[in-house]
Amino acid sequence: MQVGIDMGTVAGGAPASLDIEELLATRLLVQGNSGSGKSHLLRRLLEQSAPWVQQVVIDPEGDFVTLSDKFGHVVVDGERSEAELTGIANRIRKNRVSCVLTLEGLDLEDQMRAASAFLNGLFDADREFWYPVLVVVDEAQMFAPSVAGEVSEDARKLSLGAMTNLMCRGRKRGLAGVIATQRLAKLAKNVAAEASNFLMGRTFLDIDMARAADLLGMDRRQAEMFRDLKRGSFVALGPALSRRPLPIAIGTVETSARSSSPKLMPLPDAPQDVEDLIFTPDPEEFTRPPVARRATPAPRPTTDILAELSRSVPAATVAPQETRQSQPELSAEERADRLSGVLCEVLDDPQSAYRTDSVLYQDFLVRARMRRLPGPPMSLSDFRRRAAIARSGVDAQLAASDAWATALSLSAAVSDDLQGVFLMMAKAALSGEPCPSDARIARAYGTHSARRARRLLGYFEEQGLIVVHADFSGKRIVAFPDLQAETAPGNADAPDAGEARLAAE
After folding, report:
1. In 3-state terms, the chain is what percent helix, strand and coil (to 5)?
2. What is the pTM of this model?
3. What is the pLDDT of residue 272?
4. What are 159-210's pLDDT values in tens digits?
5. Which residues of 250-288 are buried (b: 16+ CB within 10 A; e: fewer)?
6. 3-state secondary structure 94-130
């Protein structure tokens, strides 16, 4: 069903129509400096599309809660635990209810954690509830920053991962991202690049004007026009809007934000005793309790928190003394075998390749505790190392060889997130298997981007770890000089068999 909503007018007074069904498939990016009318545009879009599609709004300033009065949006306060927010988001999808997640009053790091938990809850809903949802994220540069800021690295990764899932992988799950930002330069490029529709408003910085012009396919000299746009005027482009850049003026809205732009007001007449009024304290000030300002604690490493949680045992689940004593002691070999079994269970999940190591580590710790495995928990770095080795597919005979020991020592030269890809390639070389395709390398890295897979090979080659060449038929071969081994020729463009099986399921 094709539904066009009225966003305003174009030059000449003709209506500017936006195809909602096309928007659900192609996503939207809105950009404009503060005061350009971004929030007004989002409000117009939400009001016009409210009868046609379920809506979820990530609202950092609490401006969109007024939608509940006229359109029945449920207001969700972000000051909840991450588990609560994830559960609420899951039920939002299940019952097809429009909502506004208000993050007003939270500091930036708490806002990022709350938004990521809520978006992950929407993303992880069961397949039977993958109904179309318009997910609007205001001030998206806060939740998908292009560079690290003052927040902890863990919070930044969680938020950026959730936004990347929304924009890159959300379409198949019915999630259509609509993101608005003041600064394109501050928004992560892999998030912004997934949008196919654009509404560019007034902006003044050269770098933002240049990026806006590039996204709209305009000449750099035409970028100056973004300085001259009036408030509420935007340049539209995209399959849901227009095939050519089209200036539009956003129409009026039915609801209003709780906050508004400041207006000039005349100053009151100054009283005669103004100095006494200012410098004489009010007696109530001495009885009023001081405002307690919460100090922001230093972020704790994720590994410390997860290890602490794995060691703690809730009081309700503590076994009686005689039960604990009756449990047989495990030898080091038995414990290692059971830990390896738990690790295999976690990695056998077809979706595990696209989950972060932190999420998989939490799953691993929960499974280990359910099996009452004694001893200290495995650290996150050790988990990543073992997961990389397991994903490489190495068998017992090869794992016991000196060549594999050399490969493991070479893998220590790359970062944790690249070790799985490196070891998979090394295993193929040592076994004489065909060179993995771009799609297979991408899945090992946890992405769908073949371009990123080729960049990984280029990075390994720059580090002197591999040499990439081709045979006479053009098939790719990867050689490992330190291992004195190379892969058999392989088709770089071949589809990934594992991905095909996942799609079939």
Report:
1. 50, 15, 35
2. 0.54
3. 67
4. 888 998 888 888 888 899 999 988 877 888 888 878 888 888 888 777 777 7
5. bbebeeebeeeeeeeeeeeeeeeeeeeeeeeeeeeeeee
6. HHCCCEEEECCCCCHHHHHHHHHHHHHHHHCCCHHHC
DSSP character for 173?
G
Residue 438's contacts (CB-CB under 8 Å, 6 or more residues apart) are 450, 453, 454, 492, 493
Helices marked H in 247-331? 274-279, 284-287, 302-311, 321-326
Tell me the C-alpha distance between 348 and 97, whole Å.
34
Query: Who contacts 185 (Cβ-Cβ below 8 Å, separation ≥6)?
Result: 146, 205, 207, 208, 211
pLDDT classification of 309: cutoffs 50, 70, 90: low
Residue ranges per structural domain of the chain: 4-250, 331-504
User: Which residue, among 142, 210, 155, has the nearest Cα to 182 in the 3D structure?
Assistant: 142
Percent of the chain with pLDDT over 70: 81
Neighbours of 479 (CB within 10 A): 15
Q: Give the side-chain half-sphere CA count within 13 A for 391.
A: 31
Query: CA-CA distance, 62 to 114, in Å (whole number)?
Result: 14
**244-257 average pLDDT score:** 86
How far CA 334 is from CA of 328, 340, 341, 342, in Å, comes to: 11, 10, 11, 12
Q: Which of 449, 443, 391 is nearest to 419 (CA)?
A: 391
What's the CA gap between 104 and 106, in Å, rounded?
A: 6
Asked if 482 and 409 touch (Cβ cutoff 8 Å), the reply is no
Give the least confident one: 39-43, 259-263, 312-316: 312-316
Chain segment 110-128, per-residue pLDDT in tens: 999 999 999 999 998 888 8
Compute the average pLDDT of residues 330-345.
73
Query: pLDDT by residue (tens digit) across 66-100?
Result: 888 888 899 999 888 888 899 999 999 999 999 99
Tell me the CATH number for domain 4-250.
Answer: 3.40.50.300
Q: How many CA atoms lie within 13 A of 280 on its CB side?
A: 6
